[in-house]
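Example 3.2
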Amino acid sequence: MIGIWRSHAQAFLLVLMLGTSAAFALPIFLAPLTWARRFGWQVPEQPDLAIYFGRCLGAFILVVEMLMLRAGFTGVGLVFTFQVLIAVAVLMTVVHIRGALQRIQPISETLEIGMYAGLGMLAVLFYPR
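Structure, written as tokens:
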């Protein structure tokens, strides 16, 4: 079952990179509080720390995006990039489950449990052995 779609691994990374760059990496990096408001977060009156954390998170997402772009176009680091994607999917699923259990996040974040779990499953299915 692992890697049954491996022949399409590079195309999968390119499509995923474009979508996640547009929806998450660039908006979080460039305008974290605007992104947060759109996803239902209540933004505090003094947002400096939230802006800082948002930019930091956006920067790390952009690193993952660059890994996907390089591996998607050239095949360089393909296995490593999928390992990173699976790690991101697992850890972000845990983060969002915890937030849901604590009831400290908007519904958009709780719905991301399915998105990250699905991303993990897709990464396994496209995994290049």
